[in-house]
Amino acid sequence: MSDKVTVLVAGSWGTALASVLAANHSEVYLWTRNSDQAAEINKSHTNDQYLPGIILPSNIVATTDMESAVAGSKAVVIVAPSSGMRQVAHSLKQYWKEDMLCVHATKGFETETMKRMSTVISEELGIAEGNVVVLSGPSHAEEVVRHCPTTVVVASPDDKAAAAAQELFINNDFRVYTNRDLIGVELAGALKNIIALGAGLSDGLGFGDNAKAALLTRGLAEISRVGVEMGANPLTFSGLAGIGDLVVTATSQHSRNWRAGSMLGKGIPLSEVLESMGMVVEGIRTTQAAYAISAKLGVQMPITDQIYHVLFKDRSPRSAVESLMGRDRKTEMEAISQETWEQWHS
Ligand SMILES: NC(=O)c1ccc[n+]([C@@H]2O[C@H](COP(=O)([O-])OP(=O)(O)OC[C@H]3O[C@@H](n4cnc5c(N)ncnc54)[C@H](O)[C@@H]3O)[C@@H](O)[C@H]2O)c1
Ligand SMILES: O=P(O)(O)OC[C@H](O)CO
């Protein structure tokens, strides 16, 4: 079999993952719809809009032609923003071959349908959802391209597919664990962005570390609560895709979600925040999807609920904090029901 691997979409994360793959494989094709960007990557080995100052490996070949990018590849890694996933997967269908490995590294939902990314991909490619592998975990592109040690998880109920994805990406800088819980890993990666927006809001308001620790802890409780209701293994939320990614996204200088939240906390309107970012802030769309999911399933997500009202219903961040602090008294262990706990630990 060939050693060719393909990455679809040359944003910051697609480009960083192409760099990891270029250390392990002879041919890495990076597809983009932007011809200027493809020319820049091929000529200067840079992608300055997304990863300024970084020289990319010279065996990354960028192209706007999806057919030539995909033909003869052993694996296709899709790294579109959630808003573009269906379109990109739809375009891929005509070049897709059954013996290819399908990995995605997107953290979000299709907002209109509340579907997870592997569901969207499986519908478009006509393959079983269990054959899709998700790559997730605490991993900012800016650090990965500088070879800073990074750990991620690749998840699929298909052990062979997960092991193949592990083999594809693993190297001395990029350690890859497998996990069977596709649903949990996808949900953890998407939902942590809402809490990272909240952590940014808290910092923007000038609150301290106590508030942030509370947000992360109670945020993880509501992520686990809804995750289990949607079929995830609760233990996944204690892993890299859960607490690991929540910590990095809620505290890192590189986090788009944290930065957007912090600007909102300083009183900058959402439209201005998004204009100034120039990169996708998945937590905004994910808040909409999670708000709808929580209503549909009847699962309480109090932090998500407040962030939804701040983003879309003009609630002031301070009044959101007052609402959270003034909620009814609770026991801490309402994170997941006793029945669910026993089911997973029996
Ligand atoms: N940046 C990171 O460090 C990082 C790390 C882990 C996961 N992720 C996840 O990866 C996904 C992509 O994020 P990113 O940071 O690379 O975004 P980005 O904003 O850096 O780049 C997104 C790219 O997608 C392109 N695009 C958007 N819609 C498209 C479509 N329909 N067809 C083709 N191209 C399209 C844009 O032109 C842009 O080049 C997100 O779900 C994000 O949460 C990002
Ligand atoms: O920069 P963010 O906030 O989009 O987060 C990126 C990754 O999910 C971090 O693991």
UniProtKB/TrEMBL annotation:
Substrate binds at K107, R256, N257. NADPH binds at S12, W13, R33, Y50, K107, A141, R256, V280, E282. The active site is at K192 (proton acceptor). It is found in: Cytoplasm. Residues 4-161 form the Glycerol-3-phosphate dehydrogenase NAD-dependent N-terminal domain. Sn-glycerol 3-phosphate binds at K107, G137, S139, K192, D245, S255, R256, N257. The keyword Metal-binding does not apply. This is Glycerol-3-phosphate dehydrogenase [NAD(P)+]. It comes from Paenibacillus wynnii. The gene is gpsA.
